[in-house]
Design brief:
- The complex is a heterodimer of chains A (578) and B (166).
- Chain A is built from 23 helices and 18 strands.
- By secondary structure, chain A is of the alpha/beta class.
- Chain A starts with a helix and ends with a helix.
- The C terminus of chain A is likely disordered.
- Chain B has four helices and nine strands; from the N terminus they run E-H-E-E-H-E-E-H-E-E-H-E-E.
- In chain B, strand 2 and strand 3 form a beta hairpin.
- The chains are: A alpha/beta (578), B alpha+beta (166).
Chain lengths: 578, 166
């Protein structure tokens, strides 16, 4: 068979049912095979959206997402999406066309060094130089993308390699002597961790995206209840632990919940699972969790000790290690942290953020409250990047894993909408809502054509304040209100813009209207856009860069000033001793 | 702050195009210092051995090794302990040598350093010397007085002493 046929056969054998792509000159042989194939191809309107859609597909479903771009500009347009997936450990395979092997290096038309460009932003990359290499390369790409710490893999496919002949092998063996991710945690480390936990009085769990990748939400819930440890999450970990749970604290970090930041500061044992201690999560690392022994569970050994010095590392798969820990701890004498849990609950009650605001212009908190009321636990929400993202992270109550998708590490504006598109394709039974800013959405709005053409019924909520809100906020707080190029003076009428693409559109301006509008849009079963006119001057309290997590600036508006008091009852054991 | 030290890192890698770029790119991207890097075939077909000399504190060294290990085409990595390691570098030195006296002196130096004259021209001599980087530095210093035209050094390569392998 031909190389191009082998590519499609390999994809199908991997269980790929849909690809997001954009054709081009060197991809003609591949697209000629796609013409006859059962593989569903979604023609995006910009390659960046193909990569983000594949990423959204992967994050929502846990399966590997696939995107395709042609050589040169097609490949460079994929780059932002590949880097986004890399930073957040999302498993995607990016297929890029390349000029013929005899032309490589001659600065041929639409030639770019895709492998060189993507090397620092991909888990691995392959360039096929012979058609016979294709089956094993694609098999290995999927294996690498989804195992260990997941990530994007790039496959560069020169035109003549797509056209050349090969014998498709019956058996494909993966031969990667340099790639053996650790799964099981070292038993001695697990034992030591259990001792540390059982000797702690104020344990807290910090859960990251690794909990979602390893599918260990159940284990997380089990262990937090077993040891009486409140759970805070990173942005990537949001949704891995039900946020209405009595032990849930919400997100930690620069834009984290006040209770999370204060409790992590106070805890004596921090159990970090599948997170990488990003600067946005820790603030000043020298002031991070100053009273705690830190246990760090991660599948990537390079994350241990990279940003924060840890007392006890355990390398391996979070699911396996948490189960192991649960077994060990269950065999020990019971561990009671009632006083700590009571204290944390009472603290939490005092600083639940205020969500209800009746005034006009609409406050983002009110909008998010209404979004929360309009959706179900199974609705997948995606966010863009900036204030919209942090408002959602801060105020939205997320219940189930893989139901909150956001570009955390790279912070890619324009991620939310195409990721929602990919998520909806992966999970057609789930409602999908993208919460975007006006700036970020405008970067990818051309793909309204894609959701219209393929009838992908996502609902885009544009938080419209005519500002690049996050940078605007920093300028106000830290740059003497010198508002440099963050006011979007000329912006489209988003309702008319959506209508120009044949997409239903609504506008929301008043408190109370968002819930119903979103429910209507979801019920319509068609792609829709809601233009939400919000107050540009609402500032989310934050920890300034370089500060410790407790040094929050801006007024932290709370729901109730005097909640029902839950007294902190320190036991004699806890107050005595050290 | 930990002490900055020079480390000898030995790695077994797949002998494929692009592997050197991955390794060198990693050092640039992560801000690791790289003093020298040598690559050549290893005892096993299809595998190459890389010797990297890098300066950094212990935390940096730990990250270098872990990050190198993450590269799919890197099979094994080890920090070779300077005491238990044989380190050698090859150097070719082309010097001015016009007078008889200069020539004989240079040849004597070469002998003392267990080097060899590998090329002779009417106005120049080329020496080959193998040894630790220190020894090569010392010879280069001595030869400076005659006028060095060119120096070509391979950078150090290293292997652990005794029966230990990486």
């Amino acid at each position: 068979m031909k190389g191009s046929q082998a590519i499609i056969k390999s994809l199908t054998d991997e269980g790929v049912d849909v690809v997001f792509g954009y054709p081009g000159g060197v991809l003609l042989p591949l697209y000629d095979v796609i013409y006859d194939s059962d593989l569903k191809h979604i023609l995006v309107r910009h390659e960046q959206c193909a990569a983000h859609a594949a990423d959204g597909y992967a994050r929502a479903s846990g399966k590997v997402g696939v995107c395709i771009g042609t050589s040169g500009p097609g490949a460079t347009n994929l780059v932002t999406g590949i880097a986004t997936a890399y930073m957040d450990s999302a498993p995607i395979v990016a297929l890029a066309g390349q000029v013929g092997t005899s032309m490589i290096g001659n600065d041929a038309f639409q030639e770019v060094d895709t492998i060189g460009i993507t090397m620092p932003i991909s888990k691995h990359s392959y360039q096929a130089m012979e058609p016979s290499e294709i089956p094993q390369m694609i098999r290995s790409s999927f294996y690498i993308a989804r195992t260990g710490r997941p990530g994007p893999v790039v496959v560069d496919l020169p035109k003549d390699v797509q056209e050349g002949e090969l014998d498709y092998p019956e058996n494909i063996t993966i031969d990667l002597p340099g790639y053996k991710p650790t799964k099981k945690g070292h038993p001695l480390q697990v034992k030591k961790a259990s001792d540390l936990i059982l000797n702690s009085k104020k344990p807290v769990i910090l859960a990251g995206g690794g909990v979602i990748h390893s599918d260990s939400s159940e284990e997380l819930k089990h262990i937090s209840e077993l040891i009486g440890a409140p759970v805070t999450t990173t942005l990537m970990g949001k949704s891995c632990f039900p946020e209405d749970h009595p032990l849930s604290l919400g997100m930690l970090g620069m834009h984290g919940r006040k209770v999370s930041n204060m409790i992590v500061d106070e805890c004596d044992c921090l159990i970090a699972v599948g997170c990488r201690f990003s600067d946005r999560t820790t603030g000043d690392v020298t002031k991070f969790a100053p009273n705690a022994k830190i246990i760090h569970i991660d599948v990537d050994p390079a994350e241990i000790g990279k940003n924060v010095a840890v007392d006890l590392p355990i390398v391996g798969d979070a699911k396996i290690i948490l189960s192991h820990l649960i077994r060990v701890i269950s065999q020990s004498k019971s561990h009671k942290t009632h006083d700590w849990v009571d204290y944390v609950s009472s603290f939490r009650a005092k600083c639940m953020p205020r969500l209800s605001f009746e005034e006009m212009p609409l406050k983002p908190q009110q909008v998010i409250k209404e979004i929360s009321e309009a959706v179900t636990d199974e609705t997948i929400v995606t966010t863009d990047v900036g204030q919209n993202q942090m408002w959602m992270a801060h105020y939205f109550t997320s219940m189930n894993p893989r139901r909150f998708l956001s570009s955390g590490g790279l912070g890619t504006m324009g991620f939310g909408f195409p990721a929602a598109m990919g998520a909806k394709v992966a999970m057609p039974e789930n409602d999908v809502v993208a919460v975007c800013g006006d700036g970020g959405f405008l970067m990818v709005c051309q793909d309204l054509a894609t959701v219209k053409e393929y009838d992908i019924p996502v609902v885009v909520c544009v938080m419209d304040n005519r500002y690049l809100g996050m940078v605007f906020q920093w300028q106000k707080l830290f740059y003497e209100e010198r508002i440099s190029h963050t006011k979007l003076k000329a912006m489209p009428d988003f309702v008319k813009l959506a209508e120009a693409f044949g997409v239903n559109a609504y506008r929301v301006e008043r408190p109370g209207d968002m819930k119903e509008t979103l429910q209507d849009a979801l019920k319509s079963g068609e792609p829709s856009l809601i233009d939400v006119m919000i107050d540009p001057n609402e500032i989310l309290p934050m920890v300034p860069p370089g500060c410790g997590l407790t040094e929050i600036v801006g007024e932290y508006k709370v729901e109730r000033e005097n909640p029902d008091e839950i007294p902190y009852r320190p036991s004699a054991k806890e107050t005595g001793g050290d | 702050m930990d002490e900055l030290r020079s480390h000898i890192i030995s790695a077994i890698v797949m002998h494929r195009p692009g592997v050197l770029q991955r390794v060198a790119g990693l050092f640039t991207r992560r801000g690791f210092n790289i003093d020298s890097i040598t690559v050549g075939p290893s005892e096993q077909e299809g595998l190459a051995r890389m010797t990297i000399i890098s300066t950094g504190d212990d935390k940096v060294l730990e990250q270098i090794i872990k990050q190198l290990n993450k590269i799919i085409e890197v099979i094994k990595v080890r920090d070779l302990n300077a005491d238990g390691t044989v380190t050698r570098e090859l150097c070719l030195i082309k010097t001015h040598a016009t007078s008889e006296r200069a020539r004989s002196e240079i040849i004597q130096y070469a002998n003392i350093f267990r080097g060899r004259i590998v090329d002779v021209g009417p106005e120049n001599l080329t020496l080959e010397i193998t040894g630790t980087p220190d020894k090569i530095d010392a010879l280069i210093d001595l030869l400076k007085g005659f006028g060095i035209k060119e120096v070509a050094r391979t950078g150090p390569t290293a292997i652990s002493r005794g029966s230990k392998t990486i």
